[in-house]
Amino acid sequence: MSAFYLTWIAVLLAGFGSRDQATVAGLVLRQGARPGVLLVALACAVVTAGLAGWAASLLLATLPPPARAVFAGLALALAGGELLLMVARRSPREPTNSLGALMLVLFAQELTDAARFLVLGLGVGLAAPIAAAAGGALGGGVLAGLAWGAPQVLEWRMVRWARRVFGGGLLLAAIILFLREFSLV
């Protein structure tokens, strides 16, 4: 159960102000709060978290226990790097009314974002891929609902700084995990 809560909180922190959230918020600000946008965003959050959990279960079956911690550290480092380097656009340049196009864009953005790296890494590192996927899906759903219901929140300047601080924390956690796994600390 701790994998569920840990992943849920990590996804909430890593996903706040992310590219997919900015896309949903930008569409809502331009087109209004259409229920279809929320449903597509929720579906993409659940599917991508499920895919990350599925990948974690495959890796969990093949990796020996010492390698699981190293992989979890690598996933934390990738998530931290994504938070530090990738900046979300303010709003879509060419918004469309197509929910199918929105689904493809959100799916592509979420497949490689920090939140899904965390679901994958925590699923492997904590040996609980189903709980991690469920926590990731819940966190992604909350973030999608926030972007749809209160899109103006993502325009705050503090959002970028919070992402960078959390990204730095993830990189530090990855370094500590690597050092502990190789008995250097």
TrEMBL record:
Name the UniProt record assigns to this protein: GDT1 family protein
Keyword Transmembrane helix: yes
Keywords: Membrane, Transmembrane, Transmembrane helix
Transmembrane segments annotated in the record for this chain: 36-63, 69-87, 126-149, 161-179
Organism of this sequence: Novosphingobium clariflavum
